[in-house]
Amino acid sequence: MISPAVWWWNKKRGCVCAPWNVSPDKPRYVSLESPSPTMMDFDLKERVRSAVDIVDVIGSSLSLQPKGRLYVTQCPWHNDQSPSLQVNRERQSWKCWPCDIGGDVFSFVMRRDGVDFFTALKMLAEQAGIEIQAGKQVEAGSAQDKSTLLSAVQLVCDAYFQQLDSPKTDDAKIARDYLAARGVDDENRKRFQIGFAPDSWDFVINLLKQNKFRPEIAHAAGVAFHRKDGSSYDMFRGRLMFPIHDIQGRAISMGGRVIPEIAKRHGENAGGKYINGPETLLFRKSNVLYGMQLAREPIRKGGQALVMEGYTDVVAARQAGIEPVVAVLGTALGAAHVDILKRLTQRVVLVLDGDAAGQKRADEVLELFVQADADLRVLTLPDGSDPADYLQQHGREAFEQLVADAPDCLSHKLAKLTEGVDIATDTHAVMHAIDTMVGVIASAPKMDPVKQDQLLLRLSRTFGTTTEKLEQRVVARRAEIAKQSAARAKFRLQAARSKEQSGHKPKPQTRESADGSFDPNLMLAESADMDGFDFAPSGFAYDDEPTSHVAEVLQQSLSGIDRELFETLIESPDLAAIAVEAIDPDWLSSNTAKMLLSAYQDLDLQGRDLTSQSLLLLLENEFLKNEVTTLLFRIEQRGDKISLTAEERYLAVVARYRLRESEAETSRQIAKLATTVMDEDEELALLKQLFDSEKARQQIN
């Protein structure tokens, strides 16, 4: 998206872009192509929001009770003893004060279902009967047509399931017997749609051909490989097949597990124990957790998620009656996975095999959860067993006891660092452990002070040092990390601008390169699951790195004079039209305030109403939506308790901003006098300037 600053400059020159349009001749079909590649089409969002009622959407999963002008219900995201979640039908918004979360209908679906904005939009559009086409319209039936790919994957999954459900070949019977020997019953075989891929090079190729799919679809759907001569062959052969579903329950890929008796015939060419489908337009491993379509509701209701290492572990756990279980798919647990899980629960238990590789994986994800301020527990199974084996041997009760006793990730890390270390004599090992733990704590720039105090007290007792010294190290390390992150952000931003000035296409922006001049949705971009959308939205380079300190700093709640400003703008949209010209972004104290002002500028430049509803529609980030909703509910609760009008309060706020800027300029000039060598005339001129400024400020005649 063009930055608000550039848009503003274009407007001043009279080069205002036309508002976004929806084709009038296709009333139930909307393309997402627009001048802004980083923001969903505003008109589409408005159509979807207008077609659904937030009371109906929230009421479909929670029991709402009318209370005056509001509806209330018990919040599902904390142990709510009385109805804390409020829904305002008039404003189409919701808020839970104890959790400090809220927003519009989109953010509710995002949090309820653990999805990003794009998926929430599509889910609500489908509910409203509005068809969405992402980006440029693609040819139906082509390899770029995602509905065609979905149909192809589902067809293959169904065929594999039938092979195992009604085994007619010797290999299919071997597969059925092997699955039964692994302890999987018919109920769970059907629940997870487990199938069998015949030991054939062209089973899928012929299946898709018979069903009139184009030859290139097999490869595009991730179920076949290309040969050099242009022909294709089946990806999965002689394996148990596990369909992989998105959050909406649609098959988007599949994984295959080797069957030992069949694999013997192929010797070294049998392939790995597990093979997951390749990344396609439908499937990105780093954004999908196996079994989430079944586990989402149990996770939300039970308050915890168990993350395992393979789909057979998930099937075994589910069969044992343990429901809130998911698994990663051939990749490490990444930042996108953490985002998905955190939308559903704060407590995550990482269930690991008791081998060295399992311990390494625990270390890899530790900082991700610390940065996300999520409660990560690490369960290392005894005797190197995996979840399926342990459940089969010891049963559900013993496994659940291990889950309940699982230490938090920091305790787990500390135990591993000090294992076999003599605290009294091994100074080098102790310092290494302290530095490591300090680094982990410092990686969370916004850790709750009470939680940090508890952690430092634990380290103090372990290593026999004071909490004050440990806190000093944390502060120093945190400052160092922030400085490094800011330097990287500045470098990337300068590099992008340099390329742009030289005529080269700038490098896509990352989370670390965002600043106040960019699209607010981009700056706090969600990790989209790419359901129906391009892998990397233009302007944002997807990666699996933890959210940077720069992104964390962006998420600062409005406070003080900034909050007063936006309360007046929300209360009186006419003032917002004035503020986009009158307010200098440098006056604002937080990046959150700058992003909201930027959003108002975007709305103004597009010719939109500057209402809170328009603002919520433009914003796609949960945090920013919550900030706006909090202001809305504050205004609603305050009623007529303030005697001053919104305009009077706005003028007072602007006066305070200008006074603060004047005082800052005076301080800069005084510092200049004290540190700069000047001749007598220059000093007198500067002193006169200071005097005149102070005289004007105090309105002395």
UniProtKB/TrEMBL annotation:
Zinc finger (CHC2-type): 75-99
InterPro entries, per the entry: DNA_primase_core_N_sf, DNA_primase_DnaG, DNA_primase_Znf_CHC2, DnaG_bac, DNAG_N, DnaG_primase, TOPRIM_DnaG_bac, TOPRIM_dom
Cofactor-binding details, from the entry: Binds 1 zinc ion per monomer.
Record key words, sorted: DNA replication, DNA-binding, DNA-directed RNA polymerase, Magnesium, Metal-binding, Nucleotidyltransferase, Primosome, Transcription, Transferase, Zinc, Zinc-finger
Homology family: Belongs to the DnaG primase family.
Species this protein is from: Stieleria varia
Cofactor list: Zn(2+)
Official protein name in the record: DNA primase
Pfam families: DNAG_N, Toprim_2, Zn_ribbon_DnaG
Spans annotated as Disordered: 492-520
EC number(s) stated in the UniProt entry for this protein: 2.7.7.101
Function: RNA polymerase that catalyzes the synthesis of short RNA molecules used as primers for DNA polymerase during DNA replication.
Catalytic activity as recorded in UniProt: ssDNA + n NTP = ssDNA/pppN(pN)n-1 hybrid + (n-1) diphosphate
Alphabetical list of NCBIfam families matching this protein: dnaG
GO biological-process terms attached to the record: DNA replication, synthesis of primer
Subunit structure, interactors included: Monomer. Interacts with DnaB.
Residue ranges with Basic and acidic residues bias: 497-514
GO MF term set: DNA binding; DNA-directed RNA polymerase activity; zinc ion binding
